Amino acid sequence: MTSGVNFIGLLGALSATVPLAWLLALVSWRDVFVGVGAASLLVAALTGWLAADHPSTAAQNSAARNWRADLVAVMKNRATWPAFWVNFGLSGSYMSFVGLWLAPLLTQGYGKSASAASQHAAVIIAALAISSVVVARISDRCRQRKPVLLVVAGLYLGLWATWLIGVPADCTFALCVLTGTVAPGFMFAWSLAKEVNPPAHAGMAISVANTGGFLAAGILQPLAGALLDWHKAGANVGTMADFRFALSAVACFAVIGFIGALFVHETNCRNIWAPRNSGKPT
Asked: Does the pLDDT of residue 60 top 60, yes or no?
């Protein structure tokens, strides 16, 4: 179910690549933002109308308690933090690369057009959307989280090594397909964080793990930019060597995600939190 929601979200990200480039040939950026704002209001209205809290009894809703206490409980659980670091490294590196650095790398480093760069971004997102559903299905069928996570995270690291070494310009499209295919390791962070915490803290556990990816992206984007500026020493356009130096920081964050995966608890696709262990997984 998590991968299904992630798939829908990635369809939205996909619309911001080639479809958006086509749309901008017909309308202005202002029209695009107005349209996105109107669509967001519509989604909010539909959510308020159709969504419901479950369970919905007054007694159970009143047990929603103090969110600060839930946050402290989740953060005190040491089993939460490997999932945080998985998302920090894998999601943070992916978001920083696809969301900001892929297009400059392709246009300046490989000499491709802006349109070609948007097509590369589209294919990497599409590959991730499909792969996330397939990988999640494999995990559920095998009743295993950690081995599947380690495989995709290891392959993701291998693809990062390939990006840093460099490939011929006519191989970048295939490399984007492969990168998207092995990138869904970060989605395990949400399930793993939920499965090592009390069920009543599921939302807070997922939120803590999810914070890692956005925190990493917030650090990586300016950090890689500073490294790029420093390495190209005032030049207006970066070379492949400049981008490899800057993106090495992104690759290092991917390594952090893989290390985090080594320390996650195997949950066998079930909640393993036990009150008798004071919040520690069995």
From this structure: no
Q: Which of 229, 205, 178, 204 is nearest to 281 (CA)?
A: 205
Confirm if 106 and 123 have CB atoms less than 8 A apart: no
Cite the DSSP H helix spans in 233-277: 240-262
Among residues 192, 179, 202, the alpha carbon closest in space to that of 260 is found at 192
User: ω before 222 within 30° of 0 (cis)?
Assistant: no
Query: Minimal CA–CA distance to 21: which of 11, 10, 32, 12?
Result: 32
Exposure pattern of 28-63 as b/e (b: 16+ CB <10 Å)?
eeeeeeeeeeeeeeeeeeeeeeeeeeeeeeeeeeee
pLDDT at 120: 93
Q: Is the pLDDT reported for residue 276 higher than 90?
A: no
Q: What is the CA radius of gyration of the chain?
A: 20
Terminal CA-CA length for the chain: 24
Q: Global pTM? A: 0.84
Spatial distance between the Cα atoms of 209 and 232, rounded to a whole number of angstroms: 35
Average pLDDT score over residue span 178-203: 93
Going from the C-alpha of 72 to that of each of 44, 68, 162, 205, 223, the distances in angstroms are: 29, 6, 40, 10, 30
Residue 213: closest CA among 96, 79, 68, 60 = 96
Residue that is written with structure tokens 């901008």 in the block:
24
pLDDT in tens, 95-127: 999 988 999 999 999 999 988 998 898 899 899
Residue 129: closest CA among 91, 176, 90, 183: 183
Contacts of 211 (CB under 8 A, 6+ apart): 84, 87
pLDDT digits over 139-152, tens only? 999 999 999 999 99
3-state secondary structure 36-76: HHHHHHHHHHHHHHHCCCCCCCHHHHHCCCCHHHHHHHHHH
